[in-house]
Structure formats: structure tokens, C-alpha cells
Design goal:
The chain is an alpha+beta fold. It is built from four helices and three strands, in the order αβααββα. A hairpin with a 2-residue loop joins strand 2 and strand 3. Helix 1 crosses helix 2 and helix 1 crosses helix 3. The chain is globular, with a radius of gyration of 14 Å.
Length: 117
């Protein structure tokens, strides 16, 4: 379920993120809105593409390249649970203040991936 998320002004100054394309950065922001309150989101590229860019004609390979660039910078980390793919958004809890977290929608990311634990 999409949630309201905040984008801090420092996001635009992040030199690491600045190495990514504008579309990859927008994808990263879109992933936040698709995640649960614990920084986990479904990891199927077509699902994410349709949730983030429902009206845009983007070739699947192009969208996948944006996800791969986010993985390469460790902004998102893929993991599997019960045969399904998910992404864990690194440092999610540092940047998103969740006052009243909902119940988990997706499986918990493995402890070895959680940067905020």
C-alpha cells in the first residue's frame, strides 16, 4: 500500500546518488512509496515499473537497468523469501520517520541486510 514519504532536501545534494540517471533517482523515490513501513518492497521489476510509472512506456530492460544501478550503489538490496523477490531499502529508518507503523506487509529483511538495526 503506498504511503506518504518525505524527501529531505539533502537527497538532491547526495554525490553518490548524483552519479545515477535522473530516472534512476526518481525510481528510488518511487520505491519508497511502494514499500511497507519497514523499508521492504516487492522486488519484481514489472510490478515496480507498473506501480511507479503506470502511464509511461518504458522498456523493461531500461527500468531493470535503473534498478541495477540502485543495487550497485547499495540503495536497495535484493533478497528472497519463500521463493519471492523483495528489496530492502538501506537506511530507510534514518530517512523516513514512521510514527505509527502498520503491520508488516512483506517479509522482514534478513538481519544481515538491515543497516538500521
Amino acid at each position: 500500500m503506498p504511503r506518504t514519504r518525505s524527501i529531505k532536501p539533502e537527497f538532491w545534494d547526495d554525490e553518490k546518488l548524483a552519479t545515477l540517471s535522473r530516472d534512476a533517482r526518481l525510481t528510488f523515490i518511487g520505491i519508497w512509496t511502494c514499500s511497507d513501513d519497514y523499508g521492504v518492497v516487492k522486488g519484481h521489476p514489472r510490478y515496480l515499473q507498473n506501480k511507479i510509472f503506470p502511464y509511461d512506456e518504458i522498456k523493461p530492460a531500461v527500468f531493470l537497468s535503473w534498478l541495477q544501478s540502485l543495487e550497485w550503489l547499495h540503495c536497495i538490496i535484493p533478497f528472497k523469501s519463500d521463493g519471492e523477490m523483495y528489496y530492502y531499502i538501506t537506511h530507510f529508518a534514518r530517512h523516513q520517520k514512521i510514527s505509527h507503523p502498520s503491520q508488516r506487509i512483506y517479509p522482514e529483511a534478513p538481519e544481515s541486510l538491515r543497516s538500521d538495526s
